[in-house]
Amino acid sequence: MAPGNQSSISGFFLLGFSQNSEHQVLLFGMFLCMYLTTVLGNLLIVLAVSFDPHLHTPMYFFLSHLSLMDICFVSTTVPKMLMNIQTQSRAISYAVCVTQVFFFSVFGGMDTLLLTVMAYDRFVAICHPLHYTVIMNALLCALLVIVSWLVSLSYSLLESLLMLHLSFCRRWVIPHFYCELVQVLELACSDTTINHVIVYAVSGLLGIAPLSGIFFSYTRIISSILRIPSEDGKHKAFSTCASHLTVVALFYGTGLGVYLSSEVSTQRNLISSVMYTVVTPMLNPFIYSLRNRDIKRALQRVVLKTFLVA
Questions:
Q1: Rounded to two decimals, what is the model's pTM?
Q2: Tens-place pLDDT, residues 232-289
Q3: Residues 290, 299 contacting (CB under 8 angstroms)
Q4: 7-309 domain in CATH 1.20.1070.10?
């Protein structure tokens, strides 16, 4: 590969995980199972919410969008990794790398914003129950999703366009299993000041701001729950938030672990990235369905209809 600007780039090399051929077979099987489980689990959530009239509420409306984003999010990185393992190739073209960066940012950002919107939904439901149906009307729910899409698409497009103007004339090896933007910027020999400013600004926009909103919502929620006189009432109110809190803890815990780590090329960081990009989307359907009777009943009906049609 000759050094030069983006017009002469043929691609990068993703180091991924183990170089051992025996480990490659194990990795392929493990990630294929995780990917299929993620897609199937989240697809069942989407179908259950779509076809069950009892689930046509704001909470499940946002949950179905979160499940759809999880399918897209994991599909951005895992299929390419599986293909590289299967073909014994570590190459990724420059165009595919830029495309991967774009869609990874879009769907990752949508996950973050939807979790924040879901926290607001729980805040209104518990703190203002009498006005819930008026506040969380269909128009507002649609508007919140549309705004989330516009924000995610805008900053992702900006990051990708700025990446197109970079020159790469040093190392071409990315010590990761996908094109992680920060590590791609490390390979550039041109000025990346603007790129890093955008990355830090986006990290604040989609990290600190939503997390602060979630924290504020749950501070008010916990305060309201503690004022409920009956223990049954407290338990019921908290159970509606437990699944969401678990997903938030998983998503932000692993995500912040990746982006706050200074050792970007370590095996530990790779494992954290797998937790953030693969494991968390896989666990979301189980977290939301295990203790939710409505989802369980809807999933049973979807599965039964599928088998009857088959």
A1: 0.88
A2: 877 877 877 888 888 888 888 777 666 655 444 456 677 778 888 898 899 988 888 8
A3: no
A4: yes
CB 174 within 8 A of CB 13: yes
pLDDT category at 57 given cuts 50, 70, 90 is very high
Q: Environment class of residue 33 by beta-carbon count within 10 Å: exposed (0-12), middle (13-18) or buried (19+)?
A: exposed
Supply 132's token pair: 């819930």
Are 25 and 104 within 8 A, CB to CB?
no
Confidence of residue 19 (pLDDT cuts 50, 70, 90): low
DSSP H or E stretch at residue 4: strand 4-5
pLDDT at 206 over 80: no
Interval 292-307: pLDDT, tens: 777 878 877 777 776 6
DSSP secondary structure of 71-129: HHHHHHHHHHHHHHHHHT--EEEHHHHHHHHHHHHHHHHHHHHHHHHHHHHHHHHHHSG
Q: What is the DSSP letter of 12?
A: E
**Helices and strands of the chain, counted as H and E runs:** 12, 5
Percent of the chain clearing pLDDT 70 (strictly above): 88
35 to 69, 81, 171: CA distances (angstroms): 14, 11, 31
Dist. CA 195–CA 182, nearest whole Å:
9
Count CA atoms closer than 13 A to 167's CA, side-chain side. 8
Whole-angstrom Cα distance, residue 181 to residue 159?
Answer: 9
Residue pair 225/240 in contact by the 8 Å Cβ criterion = no
243: three-class secondary structure by DSSP: helix
